[in-house]
Amino acid sequence: MSKRSLLSEDGPTGGDGRRPTRESALRVARRVAGAARPALRVLATELGTPNRPGTPLFGNVQRRWVRNLPYAVAFAFAVSLLPSGVNVLHNDYGMAGSLAGALATAQSVPLLLAVTRPLQAWWVMFGANVVCAVVLTGVDGVAGRPWPWPPTVIVGYLALMLALSVRERRRTLIAVWLTTGVTGILFEAVAPDRSESSWVLMFVLSGVVLLLGAALRERGDAQRKLLEQETISEAERARRTLLEERARIARELHDVVAHHMSVITVQADSAPYRISGIPQEAQEEFGAIAASARESLAEMRRLLGVLRSEETERQDAPEKAPQPGIGQLPKLVEATVRAGVPVELALPEEPVALEPAVDLSAYRIVQEALANVVRHAPGASTRVSVTVTADRARLTVLVVNEPPAPPVTAPLETSGTGHGLVGMRERVRLVDGTLDTGPLPDGGFRVAAQLPLCAPRTPPDPLSTKDSDAP
């Protein structure tokens, strides 16, 4: 006899060889249990952790009828399934009337809870369905009928799956679906004789409903995030427009301030030569004033270099031109008339002494208003008036255009960048004035600005956004 046969017959495992087989089976069972324990833990966690409990379905929708739609649908299902469920369980399956009523209530009324807490409603309905399947195993009417899930149970369960799919996480939906399938498989092992198995139908239909509902929910979430991003982008675009317009105004005002600083420098440098008998200390003081003015001018030029974009750096020559004022409005009106817009201009009869910032702001407001007429209402008759109030404290700039005369031509632009009105508001705010813009009842448009003849000594806070948002 060979050594291998002696070990197999007389070894520590005995002659029948059963111990190794039993130990192997135990080891496999332990491994399966060890691998299944984390999955069961995750399953229990997902089934016990609802997502946003208490928040109604479609609660964030603005339309009221859409917010009330889930309540109406849930009420319709509950009202229809309750009597039909009692009738099916009592008359078709032969269940006792009181027990049939209790189970049908537990299988339909929780649909009302599913509007705000679908996962909690699933626990109630699923428990009632399991109890119903167990009870049906002891009645005589189950033969030849669907089991373990009667037709009314399937309809109510699918409605609950729809509520779950639009609220809960994907992992929770998978846990619910797997629990439904595993329960059906376990019931299949103890199925009554001559009963028609319905767990496969329930398993497949619930998976389809969960998949479709989750897809619709994710699509809605994607659209909502896209809308939020568009809103953020629009806000950022308006903010960028505001900053660009402020930078452009600062570049224009640089020439005005630089002119005054240059005058100060020249006067301080030439004072000892123009005025005789100035003491040495005064000459040194004038020199210090001129040096400070030159340093301030250099700092302003460095600041302008920060504000100037690459495009304006390439187009540097126009920015160095003298800044216009209301004295150049006749030329502006002539250019607008040549563009096909009839314009009437009314200026003060007597010359008005304006500070450079106020003069420039008045000109730019009229320029932008006429540009808007050319772009959006070509051919419309326009009136421009610049007047001084009776107390000679404020300057009124008014630009009113009528609707385009027939035949009405298509506007050159149907949507703008928003720089125009933003620039007007910024210029008015710069000199502490007021601006009123808006359409007229007859279809025209009106721009009215009130500017002080003297700009305020204390400029407004540049970080303030009051009256500077795009309309």
UniProtKB/TrEMBL annotation:
InterPro entries found in the cross-reference section: HATPase_C_sf (IPR036890), HATPase_dom (IPR003594), Sensor_HK_TwoCompSys (IPR050482), Sig_transdc_His_kin_sub3_dim/P (IPR011712)
Domain Signal transduction histidine kinase subgroup 3 dimerisation and phosphoacceptor: 245-310
Its EC number(s): 2.7.13.3
Keyword Membrane: yes
Regions crossing the membrane: 69-89, 95-115, 122-143, 149-166, 173-191, 197-216
Segments of this protein annotated with the region Disordered: 1-24
Superkingdom per UniProt: Bacteria
Domain Histidine kinase/HSP90-like ATPase: 361-453
UniProt KW keywords: ATP-binding, Kinase, Membrane, Nucleotide-binding, Phosphoprotein, Transferase, Transmembrane, Transmembrane helix, Two-component regulatory system
An MF annotation (GO) of this entry: ATP binding
Any one GO cellular component localisation term in the record: membrane
Recorded catalytic activity of this chain's protein: ATP + protein L-histidine = ADP + protein N-phospho-L-histidine
Root EC class: transferase
Signal peptide: none
PANTHER family referenced in this protein's UniProt entry, alphabetically: NITRATE/NITRITE SENSOR PROTEIN NARX-RELATED, NITRATE_NITRITE SENSOR PROTEIN NARQ
Protein name as catalogued: histidine kinase
Originating species: Streptomyces noursei
